[in-house]
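Lay summary

Proteins are chains of building blocks that fold into shapes. Our project writes down both the chain and a compact code for its shape. Here are two examples, one after the other.
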Amino acid sequence: MRKSAITILGVAVMVIALLSTTNKLQASTGTPENDSTGVHDPMLQVANNYGINALGIRAVGTTGITYKHFSPKGNAFEAILGFGNNSFSITGLSEKYANPFDSDIIDLYYGFGGHAVFQSDSNLGVDRNRFDDADDAFGLGVDFILGLEMMIPDTPLAISLDIKPFFEVATTGNAYFGIDPGFGVKVFF
């Protein structure tokens, strides 16, 4: 029930953001020049055409709402508000975009960051056996991310597939390592 409400909220936010990009879609024509080096960077082109922010949903491992802000140089900051079994997490990641495939629609991204997770009388995050007592708990962790992002041509939408391995220590005294795969859908604005 709770994940259904989160999914509906995420879809509603994406639809609102998509509607707000209608004017930008109509105004964007041609391919902007990216920088003085002449390097073609699809994500920088997307940012120029549709906006430097993206809002979306992430599912599979950490499931929740994601917000991404792009810098003019192709770097990004991503924040993920994740929801689990009676828990929620806040993750911040610094990401670098690269185009090793010489593609106009697919980019590789990688980076690192950290997270805080809060739980109440249950288990945390992606592994429900991570904390074995019934008391409230708090955990801090270090995250890494490696993923592929594909722009859907002629739209402000992107889909992504990534892994976000992390190491976490909790107030219960437990330490945990997880892989945390993810599938995401984002809209730029």
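And here is the second example, written the same way.
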Amino acid sequence: MKKVINAGIGGRSFAMDEDAYSLLKKYLEAFRRGGKLGPQSAEVMEDLEGRIAELFAEGVGQFRNVVDILLVEKVIAQLGMPDGEPYIETPNDPISDIFSGNRPTKKFFRNPDNKTFGGVCSGIAAYLNIDILLVRIVFIVAFFMGSAGFWIYIILWIAAPLAQTPAQMCELYGLPVTAENMMKFNYKK
């Protein structure tokens, strides 16, 4: 029989067994130590905890009520370790989970990096992995061919959220939301 601990992560509450809680605590401490995050450390840690909470919610289904050590190991393997930190050794190292088909999700956001007006063209270019100049030319041509470009741009500007967090930037570019990738987008706000 194992001890169960209620833990809050990413604004959600999870029941975790004692071993899983201990491993998650070590992982978060290693991330804080090795991340060298600087002034944005609170924001990046909040994003990381939010992503962990999402993965826990996916892993804890109707048949499993408690986050166990296997789920924590799977999440750690998926998110990775920050640069300069060794992997946390665990009894059941889930190397096969890394290659089990966990593909990153790609979501459309307006991109704040190369925006001229609202970041729509920049977001489309990043999402489709094409040159931003090509997207802008298409919108200009569509505008002069009957103002469709203008209305499409306005609708996308209203409908698409602006990528504000490093996790959202990873999703925009189709990168896995890992500690290393989130640090690439650790910039101004």
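What can we say about the second shape? The mean pLDDT is 78.
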